[in-house]
Design a protein that fits this description.
By secondary structure, the protein is α/β, with parallel strands linked by helices. Among the domains are: 167 residues, Toll/interleukin-1 receptor homology (TIR) domain (Rossmann fold, 3-Layer(aba) Sandwich), CATH 3.40.50; 184 residues, Rossmann fold (3-Layer(aba) Sandwich), CATH 3.40.50. It is built from 28 helices and 15 strands. The strands form four sheets. It has a six-stranded parallel beta sheet, sandwiched between helices. α7 packs antiparallel against α8 and α11 runs antiparallel to α12. The chain is flat. The two termini are 43 Å apart.
Length: 653
């Protein structure tokens, strides 16, 4: 999705500084608009908005949320100056000043960098237009690529402690086109998040209305991927968000978690250290530093072998690492005594340190016990369904209370989890650590049994052994002038696809993704289904339209439609359709390219190393956007695991 630019300029023809008329519509059409398009922006000018309603509402909203504002100061137009003032007051960056020749620059922005373009007879000078376009495009690109920490507004330059409003605070009270579009997009994101569909989230993240939403979308996608156990892909999302907003605290924090889970321990440790330096009173930052150190300690003693006695000996030998984990958790709880997560971790690790031979004063344990009790119970008072507050209290009972209390509180915590498999599995991992170190064996075993019983009742997320992604030619339409996939070549294509699947060992436990078009898609899906592969069809159009355009148009279209319906009837998962699942594509987004990215993102969300792409392709360009070439290029940006069935040789054999 292209970033949004707002153009603040006079409308129509106005007298210039020397009294001669200037055609600002020509400047917009010949210079500003083409430059923004070349720099990768989509532009908005209030007078071009045709929707019914108050033009000021749409103007204000776009002015505030646009990624970039281009301001033409050729003449002293009150509306333009007003719009520049509003932007400078509420946004610290993202304003580009341009002007035609004028005898003097306004004092307030005298020192600001501007692009001065050439005029002739009140319109862009043809002799300089190419040069002006080139210079303006360069200026727009430099502004786009500049650090988000670079302040442009003189208001924010002069007032060092002034902070921009959060983007949500810039949504007008009166409903408008942007807020309605934003709400529809936000609803789709929330549905995808709740359903655990990171592929959907990644497509939606590409389609955000403005940069402010892109940060939030990337974080949401990263959180979903992290929850699904894909830290490397999650890390990409947090890095993308931080490229837009390097100071975004939540993304910086989640990035630390992703680095740790991806095995990049030193990078995670350094990132956590920077967070505690930048935010010394933030409990979550200190807690993350403790988490990285704790995971490193556990990783090291587990590497000692498979025997519990070896683990305990290695854990005791690594007490210094354990103490490194305790300190930041303790700092977090001191910074925020309501932060029960850091408190319970500090208490648990202190007790393990004592069990492994370390010295821990009883007063420290007593103080922590009382603090965690207050923090966890207070959190439960605020929200009775807060699973993590209940889990912290249950763990506290495990540490210090009798067996009956442990069983009661873990039962309550499991009920509050509301069938969240990932949350329960996180609790299970803590209990397994305590079990393997021999901590209160009877109580730990009882708690673990309760959690594992609930996990066994729930269906764990489907994690495929490999993901088979297919893209390829449709069978030629009857009126196709240059043959590409003639109907008589279907048996050869089918045999080649089956051979490729057999070479990959396709079978039960795998996931197959394709659209379901007549030809390669259906041959692939049928062969996968016959081998017990779970098949999911992701289609860029509503099903009736998809069948009309991608099934019935081929030679033997009715026979292909019957094959499609037969395949669909046997699938465990119904086909999914982008307009229904993702909403209508934004203006300028091609539905077929969107469909390819939906397939690819859904595949990658299962793990980069699981992706196997099969292409039935002649190596050429498609009949339009979003063809097999686009899929091949998109896949190769992520992974080189492509099986190419070259129809130029296959159909000549």
């Amino acid at each position: 999705m292209k970033p949004l630019a707002f153009i603040a300029m006079p409308f129509g023809t106005k007298p210039g500084p020397d009294g001669r008329a200037i055609d600002f519509d020509a400047i917009r059409a010949q210079l500003l608009g083409p430059a923004l398009e070349a720099a990768g922006y989509r532009d908005f000018r209030a007078d071009e908005e045709r929707r019914a309603g108050d033009i000021r509402v749409d103007m204000f909203q776009q002015l505030l949320v646009a990624d970039l504002v281009v301001v033409d100061l050729t003449i002293d137009n009150p509306n333009v100056w007003y719009e520049l003032g509003v932007r400078h007051a509420l946004r610290a960056r993202g304003a580009v000043l341009v002007q035609g020749p004028r005898p003097a620059n306004p004092f307030d922005v005298y020192s600001d960098r501007k692009l001065v373009y050439h005029l002739k007879d009140g319109a862009p000078d043809p002799a300089f237009l190419a040069e002006d376009l080139k210079d303006l495009v360069a200026m727009l690109e430099a502004t786009r690529d500049a650090s988000s920490a670079r302040v442009v507004s003189p208001v924010y330059e002069l007032l060092d402690h002034l902070r921009e409003p959060a983007w949500r605070e810039l949504l007008l009270a009166q409903r408008n086109e942007f807020s309605e579009r934003q709400e529809r997009w936000q609803d789709r994101v929330e549905i995808a998040r709740r359903q655990g569909r990171p592929g959907d989230l990644l497509v939606l993240a590409d389609e955000t209305p403005t940069q402010a939403l892109r940060v939030e979308a990337r974080k949401t996608a990263g959180d979903a991927l992290l929850k699904l156990g894909q830290p490397r892909f999650a890390l990409e999302q947090y890095d993308a968000a931080l490229a837009l907003d390097p100071a975004h605290l939540a993304c910086r924090q989640k990035r630390v978690v992703a680095l740790g889970r991806a095995g990049q321990v030193e990078e995670a440790r350094q990132a956590a250290r920077r967070l505690t330096q930048d935010h010394p009173r933030d409990a979550e930052c200190w807690s993350l530093a403790g988490r990285i150190a704790k995971e490193d300690w556990v990783r090291r003693w587990r590497a000692a072998g498979e025997d519990a006695s070896a683990w305990r000996a290695a854990a005791a030998a690594g007490r210094a690492l354990l103490e490194d984990a305790i300190e930041p958790y303790h700092q977090a709880f001191v910074a925020d005594p309501s932060h029960h997560y850091s408190g319970i971790n500090s208490l648990t690790l202190h007790l393990l340190l004592r069990q492994l031979g370390g010295e821990v004063p009883q007063v420290v344990l007593d103080n922590l016990t009382g603090g965690v009790l207050w923090a966890a119970l207070s959190a439960q008072k605020r929200d009775r369904q807060d699973y993590w507050a209940r889990a912290s209290f249950a763990e506290l009972c495990l540490l210090v209370n009798p067996l009956e209390a442990v069983q009661r509180e873990y039962g309550s915590a499991v009920a509050a989890a509301d069938q969240d498999w990932f949350a329960l599995d996180s609790t299970r991992q803590t209990l397994v650590m305590l079990r393997d170190l021999g901590f209160r064996p009877t109580e730990t075993a009882a708690a673990l049994a309760i959690v594992e019983r609930e996990l066994a009742r729930l269906a764990p997320p489907f994690v495929p052994r490999q993901v088979l992604l297919f893209s390829g030619h449709m069978v030629d339409a009857p009126d196709r002038k240059v043959p590409r996939f003639p109907a008589e070549q279907v048996p050869r294509a089918q045999a080649a696809i089956e051979q490729a699947l057999d070479a990959l060992g396709a079978g039960a436990g795998d996931l197959a993704l394709t659209q379901g078009a007549a030809g390669g898609d259906l041959l692939f899906a049928e062969a996968c289904a016959a081998r017990g592969v779970r098949v999911q069809l992701l289609q860029p159009l509503p099903e009736p339209q998809f069948i009309a355009e991608s099934v019935l148009r081929s030679s033997g279209g009715e026979q292909w439609r019957m094959r499609y319906l037969a395949l669909k009837a046997g699938l465990a998962d119904a086909p999914r359709h982008a307009p229904q699942e993702l909403g209508a594509p934004p203006t300028g987004v091609d539905v077929w390219e969107r469909g390819n990215l939906w397939l690819l993102y859904t595949a990658l969300a299962q793990g980069f190393d699981r992706l196997r792409c099969i292409l039935l392709w002649d190596g050429g360009g498609g009949d339009g956007p979003g063809g097999t070439r686009h899929m091949k290029e998109a896949v190769e940006q992520r992974t080189g695991q492509v099986t190419w069935l070259d129809t130029r040789t296959l159909f000549r054999a």
